Amino acid sequence: MVDRQKEFSGASSVRSGFELDEKALTAFMEENVEGFNGPIEIRQFKGGQSNPTYQILAGDKKYVLRRKPSGKLLKSAHAVDREYKVISALNQTDVPVPKTYALCTDETIIGSWFYIMDCVEGRIFWTLENTPLEQRPEILDAMNSAQAKLHMLDYEAIGLGDFGQKGSYFSRQISRWSKQYKASVDEPYQKMEELIQWLTENIPANDETTIVHGDFRMDNMVFHSTEPKILALLDWELSTLGHPLSDFSYSCMFWHFPPGLGMPGVEGLDLKEMNLPTEEEYVKAYCQKTGRSRIDNWNYYMAFNFFRLSGICFGIKGRVRDGTASSKQAIATSGLAEPLADIAMAQTKGRSTI
Question: Cβ distance 248 to 274 under 8 Å?
Fold first, then answer.
């Protein structure tokens, strides 16, 4: 099993095949990044499998650079320009995000599109086990509050009215991840095929639209160095206009992950001993913050999110096959594709109201 905290934390020297043109990047930053003062030192974060992510050191200032990966890419994937747009818009709100500086769509600079933002320093928890036991209730409450704030935003007022299509979110997402899955495998996986059919035939009737993060989980957040406070939400690659209950239920998946799968999961464990709220308590807190009395179709949202995560892992499996993702993390993540599809099918039999 991969030790996520050890394998994914921090930055080190740039891995072979991921080098950047230091001279060209410096020239770009001098022209486009307010307050920049070189020279620079480039390091690569261990995490950030989908979009390679770098730490840029410049004097006493630290920046983060996110770029599209090299090689053959699936259509609409790795949209760093969308990440830049949503983070920049959220800078106007009380949703915690890093400050953005510049987006580059000129591939001649470093070979792909990229953007530059502040490096927010603090704690990143890659697993629940790495969180301080006494702070866990406050950490989860901070996550709950941040997501509720995001879903309650007036996205039109902050310039994100064109950030995605309104309505029909599930049908569009099922189509997107089904295509990624099919493009990434040589032979169909039966459980995934059954899942796609069930999800298509059971889409809930209610149709809401908010900004959704798309990957709202603990390891995509920077927490204060000592306090259970979120300083920045990261990794907005999958963000769009979508259904808030899809986004929220995604953040509840760890209650359904079996321990030992390599993902943060607590299914079957003693939550009181772990100082964690129940899923019901967490859902109730979100409902209170967003003016809901309950959530129907919970089994659908949960099955959908395990399907989507499986589709992401199938995409990584395809990149491993094609030679565009060769890290240990990518190989380990690709191995989760089929187990996640199995869990998704099991969720279809779960409770419908919570």
Answer: no
Confidence (pTM): 0.86
Q: Where in the chain is the domain with CATH 3.30.200.20?
A: 4-118
Q: Which three-class secondary structure state does DSSP give residue 47?
A: coil
Question: What CATH architecture applies to the domain 4-118?
Answer: 2-Layer Sandwich (3.30)
State the CATH architecture for 128-347: Alpha-Beta Complex (3.90)
Strands (E), the chain: 11-12, 41-45, 53-58, 61-67, 100-104, 114-118, 210-212, 221-223, 230-233, 240-242
Per-residue pLDDT 10s for the chain (354 aa) are 445 455 455 566 888 888 899 999 999 999 999 999 989 999 998 755 568 899 999 988 999 999 987 654 445 555 899 999 999 999 999 999 999 999 999 999 999 999 999 999 999 998 888 899 999 999 999 999 999 999 999 999 999 999 999 999 999 999 999 999 999 998 999 999 999 999 999 999 988 999 999 999 999 999 999 999 999 999 998 899 999 999 999 999 989 988 777 677 788 889 999 999 999 999 999 999 999 999 999 999 999 999 999 999 999 998 888 888 767 778 888 889 999 999 999 999 998 999
